[in-house]
Amino acid sequence: MPHWAIGIDIGGTFTDLVALNHASGEQRSLKVLTTYADPTLAVAEGIAHLLERNGIAAADVRQVVHATTLFTNALIERRGACTGMLATRGFGDIVEMGNERKYDLYDLHIDRAPPLAPRHLRAEVTGRMDAQGQEIEALAIEPALAEVARLVDAGVESLAICLLHAYRSDLHERQLAHAVAQAFPQLTLTLSSATAPVIREYERMSTTLACAYIKPMARRYLDVLAQQLGRIGLPEDILMMLSNGGLARIEYAREHPIALLESGPAAGAISATYHSLREQMPNLLAFDMGGTTAKLCLVNEGTPSIAFGFEAARRKRFAEGSGMPINITTVDLIEIGAGGGSIAQRDPLGLLKVGPRSAGSEPGPVCYGRGGQEPTVTDANLLLGYLNADFFAGGSIAIEAAPARAAFSALGQALGHDATAAAWGVHNIVAENMAAAARVHVAEKGQDPRRYILVATGGGGPLHAYYVARKIGISTIVCPPEAGVASAFGLLVSAARADRSRTVSFKPVSDDLRQLEQAFAELEAEVAQPLAALEADFGPRHLQRRADGRFVGQGFNLTVALPDGPYAFDDAPGEQRWRDGLDQAFRAEYRQKFGRVPPDVPVELVNLRVAGSAPPRQRFEPRPLPPGEPARPKATRPVYFHERQGFVDTPVYAREDLRPGQRIAGPVLVEEAGTTTVVGPLGTLRVSSNANLVIDIQERQA
User: Fold this and answer.
1) pLDDT digits (tens, 9 = 90+) for 208-266
2) Which pLDDT score, from 0 to 100, does residue 195 have?
3) Do the bridges between strand 284-289 and strand 306-307 make them parallel or antiparallel, or are there none, so unpaired?
4) Which of 128, 223, 288, 332 has the fewest CB atoms within 10 Å, i.e. is most exposed?
5) pLDDT, tens only, 353-399
6) φ, ψ for residue 107 (rounded to 5)?
7) Which whole-number Å values give the CA distances from 685 to 89, 272, 355, 452, 466, in the listed order?
8) Rounded to whole angstroms, how far apart are CA atoms 41 and 36?
9) Which residues, at least 6 apart from 497, have a Cβ–Cβ distance to it below 8 Å?
C-alpha cells in the first residue's frame, strides 16, 4: 500500500507543497501563490490539486509536516494580538529599558524596537522570589486580578506573565496563572517559566511577550489548518517544523508558537544538508532564496550551525542589538530582504536600491499582471532572459515581459540608463547583498568561504547562485532537484527534536556533582517525553548535553558541548575525572574561540541545556536518474551575461532530460518547474549520479 507524506511550506510569496512516496522513491511537487487573507486556503486548494493531478488518494497520506513564516511576519509587521504583561513590582519597565546598550554608538537618533506591550498595557504585582528561588514576599492575588481587569478593559486578549527570578522557581507564576485563568477564562496566558526558563530578565521578558503576542493567531491558524486538512481526508495530527530544525507535534506548536519563528528557513538548511551529504560534501553554505527573503546557513560536517537565541524584527540590518531578543534554540541563519519580489527603486541619493520592501504575491511583481507597478527582482530576471515567461512555476503562473520592460524603462530613465542596464544592476545588487551577508556570516564563525561549497535552494537560489559564488570565492555550486520546493522537501527528511534548558550556578571544581547530574537527568526526562510520543516514526533517540559557561567574573556566556552522562561518583578518582572533563570541555572551547584562557580562574556553568533528536525510521531514497544518451538543448534564447557585456544565444535544457555524467560548458540554462539554474560563461555544469546539478567555476574571485 502506498505511504505518502506531504510537506507544506508557506512563504511570503509562494506556498510550496511536496509529496513523497517512501516506498517507491517518487516525489511530486506544486507551487501556489500564498493567500494572505487566509493562508490555509492556498494550502487546501494546493493539496487538492496536488492529489488530483498525481492520482494520490487522501487515505494513502500518512503524514503531514508543516513550516511557515507567518508568525515571523506577524512580529515584524506588528499584526499580533493586543498583548499585556504582568511583572514584579518595580520591574515593569525592564522590557522597555532593555540592556541599555546602543547597537549604533554614534547614532544620536537611534531607533529601538518598541515593546510589544506598551506601558499602558503593562501592570505590576506584589510578591517576590529571590535569586535562589526562595519566597521573600508573598504573592498578592486580589490586587493582581484588579490590574488584569484593567488590562482586559483596555482590550488585552493575550497576557504574558513575567515575574522576577521565575527561572529558579515558577511557584508565583503558576499561582497567578491559575487565579487569572479562573477569573478571566477568555485570556490566552503565557508564562516566562514555561517559555524561556533561563537567566537575564530582559531577554526572558522579550521572548515571553513575543510568544504571547503571536499565540492567539497561531492557535486560530493551526486549528483552521487541521480542520481544512481533515475535510480533504488527511491526518489532522500535523507535525510542525521548529526553528531548531526538528519536528514536534501540533499540540506543542499551539502552546509554544515562538519555537516556530524560523521554521521555514530551518527546513531549507536541512534540505541543503541532505543533498550535500548525498554528494559526500559535508561542509557547505546553504543558500535559500525565495520570493521575499534570502537565507544563509553555515553547515560543518553535515550539521547546521545552532544558536540559542536570535533577534527578530531588527531595525538595522546586521546590527546586533537592534531587534527583539528571542531565547529559543534555532538553526543559526542570516536573513536579508532579497527575494524575487524585492522592489527596486531610486533612493534619495540617486542610487539604485533593491529591497527590503517586497511585492509578495499580492500584488506581486509587475510581470504577474496582478496590479504590481514597481519593478522587482523577478521582473529583472525575466528581462535578462534568465526566466521563461511560458514556463514560470512550471507554466502554472502566467507572466508577461512587456509590463516589466515598461517598469524598468521608467526606472532606467530615472537612473540615466536603459531598461537592460537597470535590470542587470538589480540582479548584480541582489547578488552583492547576499554575498555581503555571506561574508559576515562566515566571518562570524571564523571560517573561510573558499573551503565550502554553495548549495542553492528556493525558487531564486539556483538562479542567483552563480554570481553570488563568484563574489565570495566559492568554486562549486550544488543545485538539488526541485530546488524551488526544497524547504517543503526538507520537512520530510528532518528528525524529531526537543530542546530544554535550565539556569543553575555550578562550579565543576568544587560544587556537588550530584546536583548537576540530577538537574541534567530532569532535563533529559523533559526532552524524552515529546520524543517518546513520536517513537513510532522517529528513533532511536540521542541526547546531547550542553551548558552556557563562563569564567567567574565574566558577564557573557559561551555555549559548549559537555560529555554524555550520567556523571558517576562512586569513588573519588572517578568523580575527579568527571570534574576535570567538564572543566576542560569549557576551557578547550574557550581557547578555540578566543585563542587563550585566563589563568587560575574557575569555570562556572550558568545554563544547562539538553537537546534530544530522533531520525525518521523510514528513510527516503529518491529514484535515481535513468542512464541514457546525453540530452540536447530544447531551445536557445538570448540571455544577458556580464562577462560578455551583452546578450548571448544560450542553450536551454530541460532538467528531466539530463543524464548522470553529462557535462556542459557554460553559458547554459537548465529549466524545471520551480526554478531555473543559471550557469555563466566561467562555469561548467555536470550532472551527478544523485541527480544534483553541480557547477564548477574555473575562476575564483574574492
Assistant:
1) 999 999 999 999 999 999 999 999 999 989 999 999 999 999 999 999 999 999 888 89
2) 95
3) unpaired
4) 223
5) 988 888 877 788 999 988 889 999 999 999 999 999 888 877 777 88
6) -90, 110
7) 65, 19, 31, 18, 11
8) 9
9) 242, 244, 245, 246, 247, 248, 611, 612, 613, 614
Give the per-residue pLDDT at 403: 93
DSSP, collapsed to helix, strand or coil, labels residue 19 as strand
User: Element (H or E) spanning 525, and its range?
Assistant: helix 513-532
Cis bond leading into 118, ω under 30°?
no
Residue 180: what residue type?
V
Q: Give me the helix-helix angle, 171-183 and 141-153, nearest 10°.
A: 50
Residue type, 376: T
H/E/C letters for each residue in 317-371?
Answer: CCCCCCCEEECCCEECCEEECCCCCEEEEECCCCCEEEEEEECCCCCCCHHHCCC
* Cis peptide bond upstream of 462, omega within 30: no
| Nearest residue to 384 (alpha-carbon basis) of 431, 348, 323 | 431
Quickly tell me which residue has 557585456 as its cell: 645
- Report residues of the chain scoring pLDDT below 70: 1, 317-318, 570, 699-702
Q: How many CB atoms lie within 10 A of CB 390?
A: 8
DSSP 428-466: HHHHHHHHHHHHHHHHHTT--GGGSEEEEESSSHHHHHH
How far apart (Å, rounded) are the C-alpha atoms in residues 225 and 242? 17
